[in-house]
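Need tokens for this chain, all 136 residues.
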Amino acid sequence: MVRDKNIALCILFSILTCGIYMFYWMLEVTRDIDTISQNPTPRNGGMVILLSFLTCGIYTIFWMYKNGELLENANNRTRIGSTASPILFLVLSIFGFGFINYILMQIDINKYALAMNRPQYPQYPQYPQQPMGPTM
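Here are the structure tokens for all 136 residues:
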């Protein structure tokens, strides 16, 4: 289930925990994007974090690019999100602005969460309105 997250609180928690919350956020973003994009090979968030550590952050750049691809494909299919661009994510992460990618990804995830969790109201047949007032 994709859940809506408050982006300001995610940023605040990341600052207060000296970046530790970013790893939890990475785990959640991975799971949510795999759900949204209906990824046929879902990724393990724990493995993403481990590979990011082992490669000293190089895998994180690939992860952000891949998330941009998956979101862009989902956006093209559903027309719900709008901010995903794998090239933008790649450029921002190379130049050290990866936290902006988290914000952009979360914006799209929040749009999908709103659309997926919206209650579906039954469609009632529309009957012609009866005229108000006296009829002759």
